[in-house]
Amino acid sequence: MESNRVDMFLMSNNKFFESYHLMEIRDLLAKADDSKLTNVQIQQYKDPTTVLIVSLLAGTFGIDRFMIGDTGLGIAKLLTCGGLGIWTIIDWFLIMGSTKSKNFEKLVTALNY
């Protein structure tokens, strides 16, 4: 793939990924052919800031975990009322990183198809 297309993708989507993933994403996209770019661009990446706001407002009910695709953890968080509030507070600090990691996994999966 052309380097300017890779750079444009990274500039427009860097908030969805951890900073240490960006060089790996650049390498993966540079090695991929142009047909994979469409597959990567149509992916709906979750905004970590939005998920953090949902976690602050309704994290006790596990909605934040359901949003990023952790259904099992969402059910556990719902049934335990956010781990009696402790898990909810911990997620306020971890949910953005979890969201970015899930976005990276989604990108790698899209590149493999």
TrEMBL record:
How would you describe this protein's topology in the membrane? Multi-pass membrane protein
Report if keyword Cell inner membrane is assigned: no
Q: Does the keyword Membrane apply?
A: yes
Its main localization is membrane
Q: Which residues form the signal peptide?
A: none
Name the chain's protein. TM2 domain-containing protein
| Keyword annotations | Membrane, Transmembrane, Transmembrane helix
Q: What sections of the protein cross the membrane? A: 74-95
Residue ranges constituting the TM2 domain according to the UniProt record: 45-93
Compartmental location: Membrane
